[in-house]
Amino acid sequence: MDSFELNKIIAAVLMVALIVIGIGKLSDVIFHVEKPKTPGYAVDVEQAVVTKAQASSETTMEKIDMAALMALGDLATGEKVFKKCAACHSIVKGGKNNIGPALYNVVGRKVGVVSDYKYSKALSGYDKEWSFEELNGYLIKPAKWIKGTKMAFAGLRKEKDRASVILYLNENSDNPLPLP
What we know:
The protein has two domains: 1-33; 65-171, Cytochrome c-like domain (Cytochrome Bc1 Complex, Chain D, domain 2, Orthogonal Bundle). 16% of the residues are buried. It is mostly helical. The chain has helices at residues 3-30, 45-63, 66-72, 75-81, 121-124, 132-140, 142-145, 159-171. The N and C termini lie far apart (85 Å).
């Protein structure tokens, strides 16, 4: 193939591209439509979604029977599932903080009170205790339960896994709380 023929092919491709772009620009000028400053009607999508999400989370919270949930768990499974948590948290008495705070005596403790750990603003300002219900909600998806937390854990979907981990956390305490 001659270099002159190659130049003609490249020129034809470029010409087609310029014609397509030019036709688009020309049609925008010919068929210009001004958008109204205010829409004909307003759609309140965000508010509807938020209220629906709040209503579903409130009904979910009311429906959870902690006694039944805790009956699903067992300590051996809790110790096994806690290995996911052990990458960032220690569970031994007097254990040091890692990426996350030490979790010995966590059940019944106020949220965000380990003195030598720097919590996120969301957790340090969360004025509740780590009850069975709080731990269950938090372990489903931490970032959704307490917005703004630094904990990047995806959560535990299975109820049995959550119940087992909560039992394991409760057992690793000086004074384990009575089960609901």
